Amino acid sequence: MITHLKRTSPFTPKLSTCSRRRVRTLLSFIMMLMATSVFALAQDNAADKSPAVPEVPQDPYPNSIPVPAGILDAGSEWLNTSGPIDLKDLRGKVVLLDFWTYCCINCMHVLPDLKYLEQKYANELVVIGVHSAKFDNEKLSRNIRNAILRYEIEHPVVNDSEMTIWQRFGTRAWPTLAVIDPEGRFVGAQGGEGNRELFDQVIEKLVTYHRAKGTLDERPVVFDLESHGSTAAPLRYPGKILADQSSGRLFIADSNHNRIVITRLDGSLQHVIGRGTVGMTDGDFGTSEFNHPQGMTLVDEILYVADTENHAIRRIDLASQQVTTLAGTGRQGRPGPIQGNLAQTDLNSPWDLCHIDGMLYIAMAGPHQIWVHRIGSLEIKVHAGNGREDIIDGPLNQCSFAQPSGLATGPDGTFFVVADSEGSAIRSVPVDPSGNTTTIAGTTGLPRGQSLFAFGDVDGTGQEARFQHPLGVAWHEQTIFVADSYNHRIRSINSETAGVTGWLGDGTAGDSVTPPQLNEPGGISIAGEFLYIADTNNHRICRVNISDRTMTVLEIPGLEPPQKPAGRKLPDLANAEVLPEQTVRNTSELEVLVELSVPPDHQLNELFPVTWEVFQTEGDAILAPEATAGRDVANVNDDVAKFRIPLSGTTGTATIAVQISYGYCGAEKSGVCRLGSATWTFPLTIADEADQQNLKLIFPEVQIPWIHLRLTTCTTSRRAAAWSESITEPSASASRSVTIASFWPVRWIIISEMAFRRMSVTLKSWSPNTNRRDWSLACHCIWMEAKVRSPVKYGSSANGCFEWRRCQLPITTNAVPAFRPNHCCCRRKWHRSNARPAWTKSQRRFCCRHFWTSEDHRSHWLSTRSKTQMRSLTIQQLISDPRRVALKPLTNPGRAPATINAVTHFCSRIRENSEHMVVISEVWRLLRPVFSP
């Protein structure tokens, strides 16, 4: 199963014949170098007699490649988060990129899989949606925001409006999922839907491997979701609407409230069907459940509903007020020739319905087909469409549709009209199985599926006209009305001439009534002289007089949003902090003060409110019923949260639990924030004579480690050199500096994790004899020993010691015309005695004769006769090259603070006032394991 994940690198350019020859030479050289290094390491390990290392499983994806820095920076805007996200901010997490566009039915089918994975790997996985638009309307962030809310997406989304990120990853189709491991390496990608099990296995292997390795960060993260700022409304993204003139009723699919609303044509509320929660429960109007229902059709007193995300057809008996399931199992089906039993056949996103002479026709958006069911029979089957997504006319078993989303019955009952949304076309489908499907307006039959990309807002006749993702159709006399959703307009088609003209709306999204404006209308229906519109993104129903095109908003007095479920799950109290009994005075409310813990270099996330919740596990009824109704928001002042728990007014004792959650972010701008959460449980006594009037809680300290950083510098040169070293912390008001004047000075600096990731070190050198232009060759070294305050979990070991074990390469910022191996100060290992390293001649020669160039990425062999110049090499390139650096963990159970020893070398010619910059934040990838919880 795992081998099916596409692992081809999207970041590797194609090589010429000459380049391939060089690559083969390079590979031969690397094999020789690795063999020599392995032999040297084996000798070192045998000599060191280090303690046994916790066993780490084999890397499940050894061919993964590093993802280039800043690969997500091409997005025009980030949604569902407070700021942009860089993959380096998510080191330690498995990252799953979802390339999608919100018109795509296949992308909608992936969303349940993503929610499943997000819930299963809540602390290990971060999903990022990369919205790479197909239609022009989908490039606008405000429309993507509505799609996020409509589809209830709870992970960050970047608007890849120019499809730059799409191209960087080599994506070819919607949807595509790409996996990045906790060390920022691209594992692979897979297009299409139905791959939940595949990605579940991939993520499980990555989590297991990186948890054992110590590179998995399981601290929870939070994002500022768009839903946090949304307000409740009577209707929530209504999808379809059905107006019935004979009974004077209006049926509204209140899609995101998961219910059906029935009113009179004037808006008077009659019934609400469904409790408002997602589900597939049959029953009466108050207990039944739906999942984002869409199209409806009425046959006598039976209302048939396309229960889209349940992949089912529901049957509502209006007389007995009972809801039953007519067709579908609740599972998503697959495209193909279908003819089966109603209750046993899997449907696939039914979007709309229409009824003609006892036959129920279904716009099955998922498999791009039209299905049919004879009412009263037990059979359902395909009526039209071969399952291929395209706009092709012809016999019913050979024609192609593209996500059919709207149906309307023709005037004589011999055909019906289809809004083919992905193809931006209006089609005609006959009832007679021997007939042909034809296209009334919009393109058809273009080669290589180009009809799917022929869209716009163009009036014309037949194939000259252009729509943009139409979702609804309605027939009135000689006119076909079209809900041209992404053009935010109602268009009209003359049924005799196929002439298309604009009828209502100015083509821009808005909520004005005069002049009329719409926002992605999803459904339309006609009763008498009025056209009813489900103005989806405006959360309203509009009524338009067909004769004069005046529009009004239909008010529905008495309609309220669904109530939240009353039942709550008791939190896990295994890790709760147990407090002694608290006795407080009997009042109407108990004031609670909580001292929050915000780590250094962090701040409270104002967009993520501090929330509290109270539970009673046993005891007397001392709490008012509203106290345990659900989560509420606390007031915050100077990192102190304050809220009041309603009391019942009676005395007694009960065991209660208080849970607090809040978000905190680093000082630097990023959309990634951490979640602080704590639970306290204690006996609470309410007494009339008690002196205490409030309750004070202290939040446990958030374990953000601090680094005790020791920097040691040295030089070796034929001439003495003095060094000035400055360490700058960007978040601090002043720089930290030390002056180095000898070979082995030692300085300790305490610095936070966040500051360390942004810290840089500058080495400035000058020649002691300024009268001579001496370009003497020298090597300069920085040893970093980092002690971390919090303990480390590495496999079964409670603490760990980490060292660079392999020889480091020289780094230079200046060209060296003749580099001689006996002038290298590279060290094999950090000696705690601070003794000067003892090197053999062969060790120095092996270390310094091999290095990696940053311009042409080829290895060179230097000798005393070589005239090849050394080119600049950044520390990022050094660390990212696994052949040059190895970080080896050692067990260290006797020491509480974890330690990392790192050494960086610089070999160059010293000239007066020459400077060298090292960005230590690149070393963070090696330090990251010590911050695993």
Largest sheet: 8 strands, mixed
- Low-confidence parts, pLDDT < 50 over ≥5 residues? 13-19, 25-54, 704-933
DSSP helix fraction: 10-25%
N-to-C CA distance: 31 Å
Beta strand count: 59
CA gyration radius, whole angstroms: 34 Å
User: Which percent band covers the strand fraction?
Assistant: 35-45%
Oligomer status:
single chain
Report the structural category: mainly beta
Overall geometry comes to globular
Number of discrete helical segments = 9
- The pLDDT mean sits at 75
Please provide a brief summary of the model.
This protein has 933 residues and is mostly beta strands.
Topology of helices and strands:
Elements: H1 17-48, E1 65-66, E2 78-79, E3 94-100, H2 105-120, E4 125-131, H3 141-150, E5 157-159, H4 164-168, E6 176-180, E7 185-191, H5 196-213, E8 221-222, E9 241-244, E10 249-254, E11 259-264, E12 269-273, E13 283-284, E14 296-299, E15 302-307, E16 312-317, E17 322-327, E18 339-341, E19 350-356, E20 359-364, E21 369-374, E22 379-384, E23 394-395, E24 404-409, E25 415-420, E26 425-430, E27 436-441, E28 460-461, E29 472-476, E30 479-484, E31 489-494, E32 499-504, E33 523-527, E34 530-535, E35 540-545, E36 551-553, E37 577-578, E38 582-585, E39 589-595, E40 602-604, E41 611-619, E42 632-633, E43 635-637, E44 640-646, E45 652-666, E46 673-687, E47 694-698, E48 706-717, E49 722-728, E50 736-740, E51 746-752, H6 753-758, E52 760-766, E53 777-788, E54 800-804, H7 841-848, E55 850-852, E56 859-861, H8 875-880, E57 887-891, E58 898-909, E59 914-919, H9 924-927
Parallel strand pairs: 3-4, 4-5, 37-46, 38-46, 39-47, 54-58
Antiparallel strand pairs: 1-7, 2-5, 3-6, 6-7, 8-46, 9-10, 10-11, 11-12, 13-17, 14-15, 15-16, 16-17, 18-22, 19-20, 20-21, 21-22, 23-27, 24-25, 25-26, 26-27, 28-32, 29-30, 30-31, 31-32, 33-34, 34-35, 35-36, 39-44, 40-45, 41-42, 41-45, 43-44, 45-46, 48-51, 48-53, 49-50, 49-52, 52-59, 53-58, 54-57, ...
